[in-house]
Design goal:
single chain, 165 residues, alpha+beta, two-stranded parallel sheet, 3 helices, 10 strands
Length: 165
């Protein structure tokens, strides 16, 4: 299982990592990764890998076989040699945008009195789908409640929850 550095420190922007054998479908797999994969309505991270005097743009990260995370090059090119150490660098503005939208959607799910059935996150905007027959009548009240949560500037933390929580 790779060391998912993005779970340990979401603000880490650059890190070194050794490579593993590439998956049959292509891309590159690192023993440690800063790149969060596509999943749950959120796009995968993008950025660059650098080794020696070479660099390669990474378009996205996706889940591979087992627990692997595959970094997908932006264009076809030679991959870093297996076992080589590369420097991973995130497209930080894009990642941070995803983080902000993700947090805002969690806050929206608090002020909307309905179950969430789906959603999508981007760097500048996102959406949530709610289990509701009709749209709420008082959008201004919902917006005010959402803005009150934002203005309270509470600490954001991470915790995995289950239906039992």
């Amino acid at each position: 299982m790779p060391d998912m550095m993005f779970r340990e420190d979401a603000y880490l922007r650059d890190a070194q990592a050794a490579g593993q054998a590439p998956p049959p479908e292509g891309g590159t797999v690192r023993e440690q990764t800063l790149f969060s994969p596509t999943g749950g309505g959120q796009p995968g991270d993008s950025g660059t890998l650098s080794w020696g005097s070479t660099s390669m743009a990474i378009a996205t990260a996706v889940k591979g076989d087992g627990d692997s995370i595959v970094l997908v090059p932006a264009e076809p090119r030679a991959l870093p040699p297996v076992g080589s150490v590369v420097t991973q660098s995130l497209d930080w503005d894009r990642r941070y945008g995803h983080m902000r939208v993700h947090t805002a959607l969690h806050l929206l799910s608090v002020v909307m009195p309905f179950g969430v059935t789906g959603g999508s996150i981007g760097a500048a905007r996102g959406r949530l789908d709610f289990d509701m027959a009709d749209a709420p009548e008082d959008r201004d009240a919902l917006e005010a409640a959402l803005n009150a949560h934002v203005a309270s500037d509470l600490r954001v933390s991470e915790e995995w929850i289950t239906q039992a929580n």
